[in-house]
Amino acid sequence: MYTTPQHLLSLTIRAEAGDPAAMLELAQALDLQNDTKAWDWAQKATSLDYTPAQTQVAAWQIAGRHTDRETEQGFKLMLSAAKAGDLAAQQLVSVLYSSSYIGEADWDAALTWLIRAAKSGCISALRQIAFLMRPLPHLRPLRHTLYYAAASAGDSLAAYLLGEDLCTSGDSTENALGVGWILHAAENGNAAANLHASTLVGRKMRQPAAPPQVKRIPWGDIKRLIALPHTQKLAKAETLSESPNIAVRRGMLGSTLCDYMISVGAGHLSGATVHDAAAGEIADDSRTNSFANFRLLESDVVVQSINTLIMKAMDHPVSHADPLSLLHYRPGQSYRPHYDFFDPDFPAHQQHLACSGQRTKTGLVYLNENYSGGATRFCNLNIDFKGGLGDLLCFYNLLPDGSPNRKTLHSGEPPIVNEKWLLSKWARASHVPL
Fold first, then answer.
1. First-to-last CA distance in the chain?
2. pTM more than 0.70
3. Domain range spanning residue 325?
């Protein structure tokens, strides 16, 4: 959201005159400028019982932005806004219930709020419900109806997923319509669609339109039609190294789960950072890729379920981990040899160790495979691992006595042709505040 000085002045005049919508818009504009007055204006709008402002204040309390992190108060305010009918709050409440933010994840409550948001027309919720629907043939028309509702409202990920689903049909008309939706998603910046668009060259295409069968949505039955990713059975771990322990679970995430994670995270990418020995977190030429963290406000129920699946596969509590991260490497970008543990001898690492303890394990999930180069290299072990689609690589960063294992030195080698996408997850020794 770009705001000109003239528009800012207009918002200020309207806000000072008592317009709560202008107060919130002014607060959000000031937030982009890191102006502390953003909090004051959002609070004023909240005091006038303006529900969207309650949602914004609650989100800032949860994130600890412009104020100290206030977990319980932020959740209560968000829940109040959701009950009052705010769609953004309903979507965020579903995320909060599916996380460890308020204790043990309550998946039933998460789905209840997600379905409520979707029924009220929340675009993201419509897409999530469609995505989570069991992959049964008789549910395809219903899934397409939900995707179409979100896609026709501008959700490029829903457009891509609708296209992919249509392309699995044996019907040539549906296939051509699916190609049209995928190309439409690519034109609108969907990262997964861009990855696959080149494979559609020469195929018949129809302009995006409603799917052949549009169904009435049975809202009361939706919950029983859903299968959450973290409930799936895990593939057996395959050991690559005993010391340090390095193992892989092949194909843990299916292709649509991989595409989903690429799509929802791509818009939040920024230049990756490293932890310097003295200065702390900085940008450095030893790491040239980009990344995005899936914190609560950038997450959804699908992402939280995938995060839970990864932690289950890593045999570690969900609450004892840093946020799930999306990593992106363009050709030539790399992450030079490094360790994932916090070095106790580095002053800048002491705060991290005191807060949530060591990074005990690392998990990497490989989200695409149509690139050359780009292996994960364990420099002291003569192991170059290039994951297949959806593979989870997990390795222990510490020795049995809890001290850093320097055999875990590793690098993210540069892809040579095409780009590389993966997820990164660091397990910690103790609870991590979200």
1. 26
2. yes
3. 230-428
